[in-house]
Amino acid sequence: MLTRAYQHSLNGSSRPQGRPLLEVDDVSLRFGGVKALTDVSFTITQGHVHAIIGPNGAGKSSLLNCISGIYHPQEGQIRLHTGGGVQADPAGDDREVPEGQHLLTQLPPHKVARLGVARSFQNIELFSHLSVLENLMLGRHIHMKHSVLASMLWFGPARNQEIEHRHLVEEVIDLLQLQAFRNQPVGSLAYGIQKRVELGRALCIQPTLLLLDEPMAGMNAEEKEDMARYVLDVHELAGVSVVLIEHDMNVVMDISDRVSVLDFGRLIADGTPEEVKADPAVVEAYLGADHSAAAVVEQAARDQEAVHD
Ligand SMILES: Nc1ncnc2c1ncn2[C@@H]1O[C@H](COP(=O)(O)OP(=O)(O)OP(=O)(O)O)[C@@H](O)[C@H]1O
What is the pLDDT of residues 98-126, one digit of tens each? Predict the structure, then answer.
């Protein structure tokens, strides 16, 4: 659903909308005696914002770590589907990409990243002394044949490569409205802007799938609203599929196409926001069986506001 023309497609997946993109199949992960995930199965669809929610310690980050290759589950499979559609090319050389399937559960993190599974973390992981532009250019390293250092020094053949990558980075700056901060050191920027730069760096990979681990954690209400809008822009304008871990129920219910709920490492619900809100198992996991689903969402919203007051 592209409503703005970009020269480069920031969406690295050529899968047609609505097709399965990532399948989590009977995944179990243990740390010694701790069962972080037990028999978790669900599917992420191309073109969706898919939220993963659950109380503290439910296994959300562990699941994201399994998808990005940081943890390897003892049982089950995670499969990334690629191709089956047309990949746009800025030079007009669009091409059909054949269907493919990759077993992520056997790959190390750098190989998962090479397949375009991009990840932002709970804590900001940027180079604070480098500018916004430099941090975003570092997000391109996965696609660079020449070293980032050679590109930054404007050295020989690295120059043409740098210009091409610069164009794409400028599109990310435009999409996330980072123009005013382009040359500022990241460490000097407000927290909400730094989180936006982190989102931008993940987008510079041209992700097939974008994994966002609590992108609004620690933000005030206004920053959260901004961030939710940018996540929606990444989804609606750039067409990128997003997996989102978020504690703020209002945000989750507002921007997600689908929600999976974990509790004690088990998947207890999976459906549209409306279906999940009405699911008694979700109500019980959050507050106990005596509460209505609407009360759960309202209580969660009040908890969030209290944290920021
Ligand atoms: N590296 C690890 N070693 C041992 N136990 C771990 C490790 N990572 C996670 N766990 C355990 O696995 C369970 C799930 O943790 P996880 O961080 O995935 O939950 P979460 O839903 O992301 O929680 P939160 O919302 O608090 O971030 C917890 O009991 C946690 O202590």
Answer: 788 999 998 999 999 989 999 886 666 77
The C-alpha atoms of residue 197 and residue 134 are separated, in whole angstroms, by 11
- For the CA of 247, the nearest atom of ligand 1: 25
Residue type, 81: H
Q: Is 1-116+209-223+240-309 in CATH node 3.40.50.300?
A: yes
CATH 3.40.50.300 boundaries in the chain? 1-116+209-223+240-309
Q: Whose CA is nearest to atom 6 of ligand 1?
A: 31
What is the enclosing helix (H) or strand (E) of 282?
A: helix 280-287
State the Rg of the chain over Cα.
20
Closest residue CA from atom 1 of ligand 1: 31
Q: How far apart are CA 183 and CA 176, in angstroms?
A: 15
How much distance in Å is there from the Cα of 35 to the middle of ligand 1? 9
Mean pLDDT of 172-176: 92
Which ranges in 39-188 belong to alpha helices (H)?
A: 60-67, 109-114, 132-138, 148-152, 158-175
ipTM: 0.97
Instruction: Tell me the CA–centroid distance for residue 31 and ligand 1, in Å.
Output: 9
**Å from CA of 37 to ligand 1 middle:** 9
